[in-house]
Predict the 3D structure of the following.
Amino acid sequence: MIVAKFGGTSVSSKKRILTICQIVKDQKEKDPILVVSALSGVTDLLLSLPSLSKSKLVAELKRLREIHKNLIKRVFKDKNRQKTMEEFIDEKIAEISKLDLTEDKKKLDKLLSFGEIMSSAILANALESHGINVSQVIATDLIVTNDNFGSAEFILEPTRKKIKKILMPLVKKGIVPVVTGFIGTTKKGQVTTLGRGGSDYSAAIIGFCLAVDEIQIWTDVDGIFTVDPRIVKNARPLQVVSFKEAAELAAFGAKILHPRCIAPAIKAAIPVRILNTFNPNRSGTLITTNHKISRQIKAISFKKKITLVNIYSTEMLLQKGFLARIFQTFSKYNISVDLVSVSEVSVSVTLDNRNNLEKAVQQLSEFANVSVGENFGMVSLIGEEITDSSGNIKNIFDILASRRIVPKMVSLGATNINISIVIKSDQVKKAVKYLHQNLLQSGTIASK
Ligand code: ADP
Ligand code: ASP
Ligand code: MG
């Protein structure tokens, strides 16, 4: 059995949908379970609805309908099927317009779920019209999550039970399940979403619960590259990447994979393959535990905008509990910290988002001086055992210095796989470009 997840761009045109039909036919004997994202741009469009004026809202709902209907017109030749699908979309748009559209996270998740519900219906019908036996499955029937709306995590036991109960009988009958990515439900039945890009996570959850042979992530590039190919033209696709490297790349900004999708795959030792729906014959990137460690920098990821918080207090010199108080404060306000750098009297941390930061700063200010820096970004160099080589570290800082880029904070990471450097936001692109050009473009330079 395999799980094959198709991202937004992979389902947004007739050509790509025909490619998916072929991919499913070619792999039919592997008992595929499909996971599908919303059409390109649809989640962003849905997310914008609550903030729109009435007239703009009407226009955007019309655009939402058109995006889906245009695809339906191209994909279905059979007029009856076309009409049924158009009516289905009208029904869903009518349901959306009746929702209470607010920024409230619970309500937003319900709203966002419509993207995947509509795309999976179109894909399931398209596959059926090409003679493939399918069944659309809405993941609120499969994936049980906590109530962290907007970025929920799955709860193993109830999820495994439901996934086995609903998907296994379909697979045994030779039916291909077409499951909505991105969404789940709380134990109380409220719709949740798994975080932006969360369909990868849906695929990993299903793969894990059924201990499948492979998880395939079909997207719009030839696999994991040495750096985001949209940013650096000379980026190279990588044939094999370790789970640890993929996890670091995802956690440190590479959009190619959702950060949470690696853990279930590692736990169940399921290989993950990143493949290109626009180029289905390429072998893509295999993420596996079976690989050689080269001790060389393999890839670069980056975040254009992060927040840097410096916390300083001489009163805490030689006192116990300074760090504990700081991290208790972040934990209390549900703030996730990325990088940390510590001296006797100061701590610097980086954050991905500013939610609740004002409240946390207020509490921290009761026992320390706090400054918050915006306009920072982060560049991360990834590769197993890279910090073992003094050559790697020297090369990185030499390249940055030659471009007058001054690191504001550095983390080498005890896991020996990631060198992350905080720099000014407006220098991130330049740093990525020159680091890639010198370290990765024509194979890796000597690392000693
Ligand atoms: P999907 O809709 O299929 O989930 P995403 O847009 O989420 O696709 O992810 C694919 C994109 O990830 C690529 O188009 C690419 O621009 C970006 N990306 C970022 N870092 C990398 C990388 N190291 N290798 C490949 N793609 C990357
Ligand atoms: N449609 C969701 C998003 O755009 C989930 C996904 O594409 O993986 O974030
Ligand atoms: Mg994605």
